[in-house]
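HUMAN: Can I see a protein plus its fold?

ASSISTANT:
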Amino acid sequence: MLQDIRIRQRDFLLELARVMTQELDLDALLWQILRISSELMGGFGGFIALYSETEKWHVRTTQGISEPGLKYIETYLSKFEDDTLETTESALLDINLLIDRVREIKELGFADGVGLPLVERGKVLGIIVIFRNYPASFSLNDRTMLKIFADQAAIAIRNANLYGDNIREKNRLNALINAAADGIIVLDNGHKVEQVNPALLKMLRLKENTVIGQHHDDVIVLDKITAGMELQDGEAGGWPLNRDSRLYVEGNLVYGALAEKPLPVSIIYTPVMNSENMIVNIIAMVSDISKFREADDLKNNFISTISHELKTPVALIKGYASTMRLQDAKWDSEVLQESLTVIEQEADRLTGLINDLLDASRLYSGS
């Protein structure tokens, strides 16, 4: 008989271990823990309640407890003092008082109960309670097994909370990446594309499934590099030296549909390193600089044009003035007047060009 009980306990523990490794949803996991522990100890019903700063005491999962019974338990839990969480002993005392009160309600049909706090690293996270509907006290072995399940439940709560925190952080980062106006590529440590945002897909004029899994060098194809260095050249030179290192490059992106009309871009590479300073990911921020290139081209064309236009009036003014200063030449008044008129007109033209330059400078400065 004892051997059968031990085999049964072993089977339940194996099932618990399997559930712990396969189930990530906290409520589903707690329900499985409650079900297994209730079956193991011949329970008729039970519940697991957790404590949080926002919800205080809250029953997360139940089995075999009617709606009136659940409301009574939650009402009683709401009266738990703060010192319930301070020590295991105080939590155990409040649990036993709760079991006694529930047993007094004949309509619920519970004859006996046992419960334990869920403790993780000395902190009480919640409680687990199992009820029987027949008068048979829980043995020391029952309490020992329940302690095992309570410890596993506490570990599950911690793992689920960590998993939930990771999911929330990942969702937050994804929201930031997707909302960015510039293109973003997330690479793994082998330079394979793990994630891209909508802005980059719009630049490349591609769909996400055609980029994910591709190698960086197959997606970021640059031509006519005007500043910085490409990723492979930077790494060949020892980049990154530390987690704050940045790698910058400018060039024309010629991937896919951009082959016929390259897109001028600037790319900033940032490493993501673990605690051992090993690269986990590389984040590339791709910015469309075509408008800046157009502005530079316009500025260069303007400077070139205005420089050429300035030469004409200066040359005419200098030519007429030099001619009029010749010592061996005599000019009648009509020729002098004509020459002075040309000088005056070209001086006015030169003044106009200078004013245009000043206006352009004011426009550029935003004034």
Notes: The longest strand covers residues 263-273. The chain has three domains: 2-169, 181-288, 293-365.
